[in-house]
Design goal:
Order of helices and strands: HHHHHHEHHEEHHHHHHHHH
Strand order of the largest sheet: 1-3-2
Helix content: 40-55%
Structural class: mainly alpha
Largest sheet: 3 strands, antiparallel
Number of strands: 3
Strand content: under 5%
Radius of gyration: 34 Å
Shape: extended
Length: 369
């Protein structure tokens, strides 16, 4: 029997996003790390010390997925949710997983079924069967924000397929059993009649919370918030072009799996990645301004400087105004008192002999003109 799934944990600065998008924050956990078992942690560290693998280097994600009996997509989701802790790569590459973390997870009770069940995702049909309700009722509860999607993809008909965590659906069934039976509450029915659909908005909020939890760099956090805003909104909040350039460089990919190949599919996905509701746009604009203020206080955005010599004198050729102008083409302010001795231009004609034209060009003008 799988116990209740620990909800997403956010850092202290991300509590506003948790309350905004209805994601529960565990009371006994205030950090962005998954709950660790003491016995497994101690065992993992003992094995790591015995084998000499106590440094920051660990296993690559593909190798760690095989050791944990997970698919690569399942391991990526486990890392995003905080179920598996990673360590930064010393060479600046992708994050790695330490050996003692692998040993801790393998020593947990019910491995690997429990870990695999924590990251199992279901669609509308499987979710409705899990909650023992109809697909229409499941979709209505998802559209009104009772379920927060964790992923989505486009099927071959270019329809959006939302995926949910199975463990969170089970928690919802235990906490809100009254919504699964009987008539639909009036508030839910009124929201559906008004065309409410919060699935994309809740997914963006959840994805943004995961990105903010994964970094402490203020510029990276500001870039994550700017990733869900359109370029016009970002330019209005961040008028400095150098700051916008830095945010663009640090901008994370909200959909690491890649975009669809068809133009219609890419356009649909791009619309899902950007905030579209006025209230949501205003919320992210205010959050971006606050995050940008903190980033400026810590370190300003780099700006291109003017090349100077060690004495502070600008390098490059400098011409003094008192020196004569070099030979060559005359300036536009040159003296115009000297008469122009060049012969006037003659109109060319196809019937004019070439020898006559050459003689006229070589002939000197007379005083009479």
């Amino acid at each position: 029997m799988v116990t209740k799934q620990d909800a997403l944990s956010y850092a202290a600065g991300d509590a506003m996003y948790a309350s905004r998008y209805g994601v529960r924050v565990p009371a006994a956990q205030g950090t962005g790390q998954a709950p660790a078992q003491d016995t497994g942690q101690a065992t993992g560290r003992t094995v790591a010390q015995a084998t000499g693998q106590t440094g920051p280097q660990g296993l690559a994600l593909s190798r760690a997925a095989r050791d944990l009996s997970l698919k690569r997509s399942e391991l990526d989701l486990a890392v995003q949710l905080g179920q598996v802790r990673t360590t930064p790569d010393a060479s600046g590459g992708p994050p790695r997983i330490a050996r003692y973390e692998i040993d801790r997870l393998r020593a947990a009770e019910g491995f690997p079924d429990v870990l695999r069940e924590r990251v199992r995702t279901v669609g509308t049909r499987e979710g409705a069967e899990l909650l023992a309700i109809t697909g229409h009722r499941f979709t209505g509860l998802a559209r009104t924000g009772h379920f927060v999607p964790v992923r989505f993809y486009l099927n071959r008909y270019r329809a959006v397929v939302w995926l949910y965590l199975a463990c969170e659906l089970r928690d919802f069934a235990q906490d809100h059993a009254e919504l699964l039976t009987g008539r639909t509450p009036p508030a839910v029915r009124a929201a559906l009649d008004a065309g409410e659909d919060r699935r994309a908005r809740n997914w963006r909020g959840r994805k943004l919370g995961l990105l903010l939890r994964s970094t402490a760099d203020p510029w990276a956090r500001a870039a994550a918030i700017a990733a869900v805003l359109d370029p016009v909104s970002v330019a209005e909040v961040v008028p400095d072009p150098y700051e916008r350039s830095r945010l663009r460089v640090l901008r994370p990919d909200l959909l690491p799996g890649g975009r669809p190949e068809s133009p219609a599919g890419r356009e649909l996905v791009d619309r899902l990645l950007l905030a579209d509701h006025p209230d949501e746009i205003l919320w992210h604009r205010v959050s971006l301004a606050e995050a940008l203020r903190e980033a400026r206080q810590q370190t300003p955005a780099p700006r291109p400087g003017h090349p100077t010599s060690p004495q502070g004198v600008p390098q490059g050729p400098v011409v003094s105004p008192g020196l004569p102008r070099p030979a060559g083409r005359r300036g536009r302010h040159a003296a115009t008192s000297r008469p122009d001795r060049r012969p006037p231009a003659l109109p060319l004609s196809r019937r004019t002999p070439r020898a006559l034209l050459d003689r006229l060009r070589r002939r000197k003008p007379t005083p009479a003109g």
